[in-house]
Amino acid sequence: MRSHRLALVVLALLPPPPLAAQTTLEEAAGRARQLWLAHDVAALVAGSDTVRLQLPGVAYFAALAPGQAARLLDRYLEASREIGLDLQGVRPAGPDQGYAEGRRRYAVEGTSEEREEMVYWEFRLSGGKWRLREVRIVP
Asked: Which end of the chain has fewer surrounding CB within 10 Å, N or C?
């Protein structure tokens, strides 16, 4: 009985299993959409080796580490409130590369004016999982 309780305590202390790998590009795009809406940019770039960013008003960033990319995206999103993000298209560009685009609707905190911009994501299939490689935002 005591060993059974010990086993339960050990299991409770273990980290949760990793999220299941996205088996399709559409699943990866849907997950990216959900994470964007939640402003969970750390999870969005997690597992990527490098991420390229193109943000309005900022020079193009080539090959950032995921932590750097997350900080820049977080800074970009921090003053906004998401209204919606509709996926406009998801398309493969080969067996291990694909793209998704979404129309983002948001308001700057403290205002009610709705704004729109396009968000483009590039994904690469690596190790059986679609990983984010690039984020481009076009007003």
From this structure: N
| Cβ pair 120, 99 in contact under 8 A | yes
Whether the per-residue pLDDT at 11 is higher than 70: the answer is: no
Q: Which two tokens stand for residue 134?
A: 């690039």
What digits encode the pLDDT tens for the residues 22-50?
589 999 999 999 999 999 999 999 999 99
Q: Please give the model's pTM, rounded to 2 decimal places.
A: 0.82
* Domain assignment of residue 3, yes or no: no
Range of the domain at 82: 21-138
Q: Structural domain tally of the chain? A: 1
Task: Identify the residue whose tokens are 């948001």.
Answer: 106
